[in-house]
Amino acid sequence: MRNDVFDLIKELKHLLLKGQEMDIDTLQYEAESLYHFYSKRVDKLLDNGIFDIEGAKEFDGLYKKLKRAYPIETTVYDRDEESCLAEELDFGFPFEEDEVRYVDEDVLTRIQKNITNFIANRSVSDPYENDPEFADILIKQKPIVYVEQDDLLEMASGLKGITTSFVQYIENYRPARWRWGIDLIVISQYLFELMVEITYKTISGEDLDHLKYDIRQAFTYHKANVPELMERAINESVVMLEELLSDTIDYVEKHDYHKLEYEAWLRPIFYNIGILGIKFALEHHSERD
């Protein structure tokens, strides 16, 4: 049964890579068929009392990536042709864009700290599972590989530049009906994987000069250039990262942070997700092929 799940993962990866060459109806049919076969296999294993299904987390993560990269499901948003950012469908109802509020330095710093603490705490816990055996925790706080201080500072500096460029892109191209929650998850996944790749290459002594990034890659299928075992770990973490981000969105909306300038909440979220990517890579660096 193990090979069945991994065979489906191989087919799913093929769809992710070839999706742009397929018409949407064919892609949708192939994807739904794969998911149907996968669900039947998982149900059979569960009926037999097998709950720790090898490959299940990776399949679930890759299927989420497929749905994000290609319009195989009905949604209430479109992607702007120029920016690729998510825009709410216009059903003709009156719409008034919220005016962005700016805050003083003390308030901005406090909000940034609140968001940092929320994400850091959420990344090492699973509020949906009381049994530690079944808890899905993104950052396991296990021993990590040693990294030179200068390398850490360089990665942190690079991360600041990346997140600043992402926010500037959004500021320049954001549509009036921007669905920021949709894009926050998609862009954060791309950023997380980008920082995993940068960290892996840094501690492996690989050249970073040819490593390029483009926020628009977030809206297509992107695969980090890392060893297969680390790539599998990334795919297995997709659902965990989405749940963390969904909780973060709820937290931001609860406190109305999303009505403030992006430097107060959006860039701090991106930055802290990037930090999680660094930590994730350090924890999984030993997982080489």
Overall description:
By secondary structure, this protein is mostly helical. The protein has eight helices and two strands. Helix 3 (56-69) packs across helix 7, helix 4 (105-123) runs parallel beside helix 8 (262-284) and helix 5 (149-173) crosses helix 8 (262-284). The longest helix has 27 residues, at 228-254. It is globular, with a radius of gyration of 20 Å. It starts with a helix and ends in a 5-residue tail after the last helix. The mean pLDDT is 90.
Widest beta sheet: strand line-up? 1-2
Quaternary: single chain
Alpha plus pi helix count: 8
SSE sequence, one letter per element: HHHEEHHHHH
- What gap, in angstroms, lies between the N and C termini? 23 Å
- Estimate the mean pLDDT confidence: 90
Strand content: under 5%
Describe the biggest sheet? 2 strands, antiparallel
Globular, elongated, flat, extended or rod-shaped: what is the shape?
A: globular
Output the radius of gyration. 20 Å
Helical content (DSSP H or I, runs of 4+): 55-70%
Low-confidence stretches: none
Q: How many runs of DSSP E, i.e. beta strands?
A: 2
